[in-house]
Amino acid sequence: MKLLTLLRPAVALVGLLPAWCAAASIGIVTIVDGDVAVLRDTLRFAAAEGLRVRNDDILRTGPDAKLARIELADGTTLDLGPDTELMLQPRAGGAFGERAATLYLARGWLKIGTAAEPGVAGVASTTIDLQHLSGTAVLRAAAGATLLFVEAGQAQVADVQDGRAAKPQSLKDGDTLVKRSNEATRLARRPPADLLQGMPRGFADSLPRRASRFQANPVEPGAATPVAYAEVSRWLNGEPPLRALAVPRFTPRVSDRSFRASLVAELRAHPEWDRVLFPEKYRPKPVVVANRPAPAAAAAAASAPEPAPVTVSLQGLMSWPSAARDYTPNSPMEAR
User: Fold this and answer.
1) What is the H or E stretch that residue 165 is in?
2) pLDDT, tens digit, for every residue of 67-118?
3) Which CATH number do you get for residue 139?
4) How far is CA 230 from CA 84, 87, 150, in A?
5) Residues 230-239: pLDDT tens digits?
6) Is 178 exposed, middle or buried (0-12, 13-18, 19+ CB in 10 A)?
7) Are residues 180 and 95 both part of a single domain?
8) Which domain does 245 fall in, by range?
9) What is the DSSP letter of 212?
10) Residue 25: pLDDT above 80?
């Protein structure tokens, strides 16, 4: 009993810890060069070297950021360039169906490297899915174009149309897959020059792994602020699987007036939010019940005989004066 008494305060303190302290870590941020933020649930905080990341975290780099690196527990390295948004291992990956995405690149630059077989699977984007990689590859998701370059090793890549992945094709060292708007996916032996512009310098280097430096002394998240609509608009207005993930995640932000107003203004881009914003439209309509007599009264009324109809005979009316012969006068005057 004494031990249980001592443990109760500790259990109570665990319940007060932030949600991210209790969640399992899937990797560590090992390089931060520039403005790099982590979007966790409905909060945003600055990334720092040694910070542990978890499922559903969104890494977001600013336009002037040079490089951010995440080293996952399986040895996979993820290098992010400027203006990049990457979701780590969506918890509801089933929303992607057969695509089975474990990473989602919404925009920007991503260099991914695997430590050994079987490699990494499920790097999704709007137009191209990297379904399997053994080696190193560079992806760029830009407005109107997507680039995938296999720097080393082999990869399985599939074209995505209306949220469905086509039959994958195999790529090897030096192969490049390019998908531009309103054009068929094209395989080339050299990346187009226009899509290589702005590639981070760090992508050209082989950076050493640094996760072991932070294993014993991980960094906790700093001060956090609620996410603004503009910061998560790509996830709110993306393809259907992303929007499905966004509804339960960002519903708590509906209480914010500005966030709600933006949701309503762009409702056509995310129609699934109509039920959240206007729940009264989806409540069951009240059933109107008419007042009916009690069963006993109704049965009695049904068994009662119907009243006889009242009829008036014209012949009877005309014969009515004949009854005068049965009339006995009461006075002489009446007798006359």
Assistant:
1) strand 164-165
2) 999 999 888 999 999 999 999 976 644 556 666 668 999 999 999 998 766 6
3) 2.60.120.1440
4) 14, 16, 33
5) 999 999 999 9
6) buried
7) yes
8) 227-282
9) G
10) yes
